[in-house]
Amino acid sequence: MERKVFMPPGHSLVEKLIIYAARRINARCLNFAPSSSLSVPRSADNGPMMLYMHVPFCEELCPYCSFNRVKLEEGLARAYFRALRKEILMYRDLGYKFGAVYVGGGTPTVLMDELCSSLRLIKETYDIEEISVETNPNHLTKENLRILKDLGINRLSVGVQTFDDGLLKSLNRFHKYGSGAEIAERLRMTQGIFHTLNVDMISNFPGQTIGMLEKDVSTIVELGVDQVTYYPLMASSTTQETMKKEFGRAEGGRDRDYYLTVVKSLAPHYKATTAWCFSKDESMIDEYAVHYDEYAGLGSGAIGHLGGSAYANTFDIEEYIGKVNKGMMPVAAKKDYPLKDRVRYDFLMKLFGLSLNVTALKAKHGADAYRCLWPEILFFRLVKGLKKKGDILALTERGQYYWFIMMREFFVSVNNFRDYCRDKIYAEGAQKK
Question: What pLDDT does residue 238 have?
Fold first, then answer.
């Protein structure tokens, strides 16, 4: 899985150092060990956790997406949801307690009746207070919204990416979801139904200009949605090559300009809640890893983080269904992290949420952050990315941009790991033939 470290042009020396270090650390930390007999440990009863549930089916596949997803086959999808509900109960039998659910994809709302059955089971089994579900603009119908509201969804996250008609066409989204104006009208209809309506947007698409970005942000501001998450393009290496063939490579070295355009345009109307999420009032957080130290990953290709270890379920959907139906945990790979890496992970994730309590970190791990991570802390203090007040380390405005870069590199590495897992499936399938 070791990949050559490519340094994009146009970055400052500090940015280059951050990118270089992040890619080397991510390559090491995401080198999971494969196994056919791994399982999930019994719960240590550390309080409510987050349950992440993955639905890998889409009506059509977007060319920039690196998540585990396949085109919808209804029969396979229904068999998958049945297995997913069995996996939900496996965690109950292991003593886990979940206080929140995040359903991602794929497109979780692709079969509404199956999604509802799965969420009802979760609510019956666990003491759930928060439910966040992802969806696409074409699923924002009055009937779907009524069903989701009645089901107790707190946060609905809509994958919009851009309102620009030209970009929507080049990304093969226009014919699926309509024009930018039509998408905006659907969002306007949805606003106010849920506690938090989040809109997922992406910057630095191939062919996207600052002017297009400014118009997208102004549309968000005009709509007044509760929350907007402005991701950088985080395609895996394989997906980047696919995108390059279809509509060109995204230009390097534009990160700062695009980031500043978003931040400055949103600042009068929204407050930053993570390095790339902006909210009004008390909107629910976008990145669950910030508020939940541990989370279980359910479904094919889901990644979980429990007990100082990260694990990945099999990316082969039929294998996933077969294992669960036999009463086996569908874990395919796992990584046990030493203390320093566990502290480093919390350092990254908590500061992604803008601040870190070093006393709480020490209480959790029994280790002093300043001793474990003095090079990282010293570096970010010297480049004016961190400020200290009592027990709190907090990001400066400059630091928010540095964490924007680091989290982009982290998720690109995760997406490269997903590619590796998919390639392994295809290779094994070819050998069997």
Answer: 75
Listed as own residue / partner, the contacts of 138-143 with beta carbons closer than 8 Å and 24 or more positions apart are 138/176, 138/177, 138/178, 139/107, 139/109, 140/186, 140/187, 140/189, 140/190, 142/189
Between CA 280 and CA 267, with CA 15 as vertex, the angle to 5 degrees is: 20
Write down the residue that tokens 């669960």 correspond to: 324
pTM of the model as a whole: 0.91
Q: Is residue 424 predicted with pLDDT exceeding 80?
A: no
Q: Which domains, ranges and CATH numbers included, belong to the chain? A: 1-31+339-433 (1.10.10.920), 44-290 (3.80.30.20)
Tokens 């990316």, residue located: 315
Looking at the chain, the whole-number percentage of residues with pLDDT higher than 70 is 89
As a whole number of angstroms, the longest Cα–Cα distance in the chain is: 62
Label residue 254 by pLDDT band (50, 70, 90).
confident
From residue 219, alpha-carbon distances to 192, 199, 216, 401 in Å are 17, 11, 5, 23
Do residues 220 and 400 lie in contact, with contact meaning Cβ atoms separated by under 8 Å?
no
Residue 417 in this model has a pLDDT that exceeds 90: no
Alpha carbons 306 and 43: distance in angstroms, whole number: 9
The alpha-helical segments, DSSP class H, found in 94-195 are 112-125, 142-151, 165-170, 174-177, 180-190
Residue 369: which region, alpha, beta or left (left: phi > 0; alpha: psi -120 to 50)?
Answer: alpha
Residue-wise pLDDT for 366-415, tens only, equals 999 899 999 999 999 999 999 999 999 999 999 999 999 999 999 988 88
Separation of alpha carbons 294 and 314, rounded Å? 20
**Which residues lie closer than 8 Å to 119 by C-beta, 6 or more apart?**
101, 103, 131, 151, 152
Query: What 8-state DSSP symbol labels residue 219?
Result: H
